[in-house]
Amino acid sequence: MAEAAAALGQFDFAGDDHVVPFQVEGLDVRGRAVQLGPMLDAILERHHYPAPVARLLAEVVVLTVLLGTSLKFDGKFTVQTKGDGPVDLLVADFSTPENVRAYARFDQALLNKAVEAGETEPEQLLGKGILAFTIDQGKFSQPYQGIVPLDGTTLEEIAGVYFRQSEQIPTRVRLAAAELFDRDDAGKPRHRWRAGGLVAQFLPEAPERMRQPDLHGGDGDTGSRPHGDDDAWLEARSLVETIDADELTDPLVGTERLLFRLFHERGVRVYEPRAVFDRCSCSRDKIKGVLKGFSAEEIEASQENGEIAVTCEFCSTTYRFEPAELQPAE
């Protein structure tokens, strides 16, 4: 079913936890934008992450949602970092059409040292390593994985490198996360997390206009103008770079208002928003199936107080099993 476009003011605003696809015909740009509120807050508060870790994971969730909602098939999209910094693992899954889960792993002692030293920029917390993008279309196909290095730059910049290397599409990504302290309707102090992001891609009808520059002066470098010199893309990228981090997270700005502010002179169109939800794919049956593959010795070693307890790293749900449940049927 084709997505319906609308002009600003012809519909209710999407609000939090809804991805808004958009198109700017005058600049040959398509993209998606989102503000995450309650969904993200539930993921982060469930684990009580320290603020620097929560902020990093929030950006990864936004990036995963922006890219995952572009899938045109049933499957899963995963963004994962592995580094040698205090936050050594971040992972977020998007399962079509709307389910998100995420978690972070960190070394508390190393994190404390980093905070004391004022080394809390994302690149300092992640360290050197890799950022992997994995697309899994199910059991009848091989997963595709694109890997780019964590090289001391921001997640925004690293995501841009991924698109440059894997999809050959000029892309600009903006990400932001914010920790809010306010009061609820009853006047009680309240702590919340919000995040937002935008991805814009240059997709002109003439393919030669989006030619990518060769990496590091490769053999194909002929000195011709790369995509970055196309006037339309230069304008679009410049507009995207004017976004302030507060605009991506402020609920009073809203996604559609931000898009209007950026592109109204070029005729921005927005499409039907897509809701995303905090939903884990774990289940008792799935975990039981894994445990049934354990040997008798492994089952014995996994017991505590006569039962086996398994806690999902994503949603923190604990599943408990009696050893007899895991024995093969006679």
From TrEMBL:
<keyword id="KW-0143">Chaperone</keyword>
<dbReference type="Pfam" id="PF01430">
    <property type="entry name" value="HSP33"/>
</dbReference>
<keyword id="KW-0676">Redox-active center</keyword>
<dbReference type="InterPro" id="IPR023212">
    <property type="entry name" value="Hsp33_helix_hairpin_bin_dom_sf"/>
</dbReference>
<dbReference type="InterPro" id="IPR016153">
    <property type="entry name" value="Heat_shock_Hsp33_N"/>
</dbReference>
<keyword id="KW-1015">Disulfide bond</keyword>
<dbReference type="InterPro" id="IPR016154">
    <property type="entry name" value="Heat_shock_Hsp33_C"/>
</dbReference>
<keyword id="KW-0862">Zinc</keyword>
<protein>
    <submittedName>
        <fullName>Hsp33 family molecular chaperone</fullName>
    </submittedName>
</protein>
<feature type="region of interest" description="Disordered">
    <location>
        <begin position="206"/>
        <end position="229"/>
    </location>
</feature>
<keyword id="KW-0963">Cytoplasm</keyword>
<dbReference type="InterPro" id="IPR000397">
    <property type="entry name" value="Heat_shock_Hsp33"/>
</dbReference>
